[in-house]
Amino acid sequence: MASITSTVWASLPRLPAKSERVIQRNPIKLIRSLTWLQFAFFFSGWFAWVCDAIDFFAVTLSAARLAPYFHKTLSTVTLSITLTLLFRPLGAFIFGMLSDRYGRKWPLVANLIIISALSLATGFCKTFSAFLACRSLFGIGMGGIWGLAVSMALENMPVDARGLFSGFLQLGYPVGYLIIAAVNLNSRVAKETGWRPLFYTGAAFSLTGAIIRLLLPESQYFLERQAARQREGDQTATSKKSVQFIRETWKMLKTHWARCIFAIVLMTGFNFYSHGSQDLYPAYLTNDKGLTSHQATVATIIGNCGAITGCTIGGYVSQYLGRRITMICFCLFCCAMLPLWLLPSSFSGLAAGAFLVQAGVQGAYGVVPVYLSEISPVAFRAMWPGVAYQIGNMVSSASAQIEATAGAKLKDPKTGKPAYGRVSAILVGVAAGVVILCCLFGDESHSAHFERGRAAFEKDGGLDVVDDGQAAKTYPESTQGDEEKAEDIQRDHLRA
């Protein structure tokens, strides 16, 4: 009993070591510490994530116009959203494995070109069957973006800046929504037959993202790992490297299977947490609160501004409070703001509630990219976090149907209308509880130097091994000075 108690106590989140708390560093100084190449890598990953959001929300914003065009009900049209979410784990696995094996550049370029072509093809669909086929294939392409963007952006980032830029990276999703929502507010696009420009916009953004990544070199991490192999005189043939990669993948699964399950449970909770606050929010405002569609759209945009604010703050303070404590604090803040999300009847009150709740939701979510990168097997930081993220998305794909069904049964006693708001608040609260439990008893590797780990095509890459044979996430206090020197050397190398 005592051993169980001590184990539970040891797993609880704590503040990071003093050497890792960089909250006293002005964020402007953190931003200025990056080289132009590090900025370019980050921007490329961030822009890819923005493109992902633009392409995804094009369907949700045009669903009401797609239904009469294809002569289907709204619930039938939303099947395309579910299919997109269901196929995303497959894309995360395929493109993640390609990225961990062959590098960050070409898999991401190909990924963006594929979703650009599929988004363009969606705009040309004339039958509902063709539309569903395009969106299903699009789900495979879309699933690869997050893992590739996160791995490339953060592995080239100074360790003490990763928290801040994790928040910046995740806020690319609400930024993408704001861009496509602004396009959707155009009077011509808003017409019943004007849904196609939304998909053309998505195709143009994704193609631009592919061009941006094409102009940049391979990730510094992969260049250094290839150089290390050459210094060791490793001239293994390409076919044998692929065999080695498969072996290391198997080693990783045997070694880290429990952590894989934990990440999937965490991201399932996170995706229910996020989708519960978003999917039926416009319907809640129009049906429960009597707002117009235009007011609901504006309130949703204000909520996304709160999401951007939360992502920025959450990522930054996680460098001081730690990843898990930060996520717990923002989940508690979100739950405390739910009454303001539910009780007001005026537009201003509801908009304020949307801003604060989304700040809480996305404040916790802004820590996810760096948190998953730090606890993932170091050689599989494109595939492993991406698959966990997208499986969580797949499991939560039914959240809208759950809310709609429960809301229709749990009606408001005064008006007799579906209580979408109350059901959404319950779902958000339960999901926040799941995330908090995961954070209380999960793993954390704050400020892990995963950029020193071996790549997946190297021997023992699946065992989190660095060049000196030590565990990539374990650094004794006596080596702290050496870590700082190594970090300085790495920055000077990147500047050169």
From TrEMBL:
TM helices/strands, residue ranges: 34-59, 79-99, 106-124, 130-152, 164-185, 197-216, 257-276, 296-318, 325-343, 419-442
Keywords of this entry: Membrane, Transmembrane, Transmembrane helix
UniProt-recorded Gene Ontology molecular function terms: secondary active monocarboxylate transmembrane transporter activity
Membrane topology: Multi-pass membrane protein
Domain Major facilitator superfamily (MFS) profile: 41-446
Biological process, per Gene Ontology: plasma membrane lactate transport
UniProt key word Membrane: yes
Any one Gene Ontology cellular component term annotated for this protein: plasma membrane
Keyword Metal-binding set for record: no
SUPFAM superfamilies: MFS general substrate transporter (SSF103473)
Subcellular location: Membrane
Location of the region described as Disordered in the Swiss-Prot/TrEMBL record: 467-496
Pfam families (UniProt xref): MFS_1
InterPro entries xref list: MFS (IPR011701), MFS_dom (IPR020846), MFS_trans_sf (IPR036259)
Biased composition (Basic and acidic residues): 487-496
Entries under PANTHER family matching the protein: CARBOXYLIC ACID TRANSPORTER PROTEIN HOMOLOG
Descriptive protein name: Carboxylic acid transporter
Native source organism of the sequence: Kockovaella imperatae
